[in-house]
Design brief:
about 325 residues, mainly alpha, 12 helices, about 0% strand
């Protein structure tokens, strides 16, 4: 009985690990054996075919390695069915768009035409990513810094809380993008206005969570600190701030999500380059393959930044690692 279960488990494990290869082969078969609709403009090179061949090579490599490396085997057993399902979804989209042209061709281009944008406009896309990253970095930096300072003052000082908090309650909930018309006329350059909009989007959640974290810190810690002779600076940066770190990270996470929205909106108003500008420009030119390429860039851009943030959080708050999953 135990021997039979072991065989079943082995077959199941093998099947899960081979799923990525099967999914890629199915996508290749559909793409190569079913011709594209004549309504779609033909691409110079079948970039989708090249991408699938690269993915097939990687899937085969990981399948072979899974026999020798336990971590890869476990990963394929976990993700194999999902990757197979993803391949099925991609096949369906390919059939609906490129093969059968069931949707308006101008708004739903083929995979070949979308991938061609990445190859043929690499320099422009790289420039847009750099501009967006620079803008986001500056906006998030000032937003987190000012939000942290404001949050510490509000959380630690009752006088500051009394005088400042009513104004923050009034101004904070206003979406940062609502300030764009006013900010564009106030700041001398669109770049400075965009940095301000992003910083404003980050500032409110960071200050809110920082002040809440400090206010919720147990009073016993402060009493013990005072008894041992701790001064105000020590109480703030050695007791209050470390205790509020989980809240601060949560506020930063929320702020960065809001910053992405502010970034894309700000770049659509007066920016010279950037991912948001690129999408807006491609839409105006009715080049929707560029719009989808821009959306894919945003997805990768945001995923990388949030993943890095969670890695930093996991390092600093090791005892809370895995509490919030990404």
């Amino acid at each position: 009985m135990a021997h039979t279960d072991k065989i079943k488990f082995t077959i199941k494990s093998l099947l899960y690990r081979v799923f990525p290869i099967l999914g890629t082969l199915a996508a290749l078969a559909v793409h190569n054996f079913i011709p594209n609709s004549s309504l779609h403009p033909a691409a110079k090179t079948s970039y989708y075919n090249i991408l699938l061949l690269i993915l097939l090579g990687l899937a085969t490599l990981f399948f072979i390695l899974s026999f020798f490396i336990k971590k890869i085997r476990a990963g394929l057993e976990l993700k194999g069915p999902f990757l197979f399902g993803t391949a099925g979804l991609v096949i369906v989209i390919n059939l609906i768009t490129a093969k059968l042209a069931l949707l308006p061709v101008i708004f739903f281009p083929s995979f070949d035409n979308i991938l061609a944008v990445f190859i043929e406009q690499t320099a422009l896309l790289g420039k847009c990513i750099w501009y967006s990253f620079r803008l986001l970095l500056l906006g998030v930096f000032w937003g987190v810094l000012i939000g942290f300072i404001t949050g510490v003052l509000l959380g630690f000082s009752k006088k500051v809380y009394y005088w400042i908090n009513p104004y923050i309650k009034l101004i904070g909930p206003i979406p940062a993008t609502a300030w764009i018309p006013l900010v564009l006329t106030t700041f001398p350059t669109p770049f400075g206005a965009s940095v301000f909009i992003i910083a404003l989007a980050v500032w409110f959640p960071v200050q809110l969570m920082t002040s809440s974290g400090i206010q919720n810190t147990s009073k016993v810690y402060f009493e013990v600190g005072k008894t041992l002779g701790a001064r105000t600076f020590f109480q703030v940066f050695r007791i209050a701030v470390p205790a509020a770190l989980p809240n601060i990270f949560q506020g930063t996470f929320n702020g960065i999500c809001a910053a992405f929205i502010a970034l894309m909106t700000a770049e659509m108003f007066g920016a010279k380059y950037g991912i948001g500008w690129y999408i807006s420009y491609q839409k105006a030119m009715m080049l929707y393959s560029g719009v989808y390429a821009g959306l894919l860039m945003i997805a990768v851009f945001c995923t990388v930044i949030i993943t890095v943030l969670f890695k930093v959080r996991g390092k600093l708050l090791n005892w809370q690692k895995g509490l919030i999953k990404w």
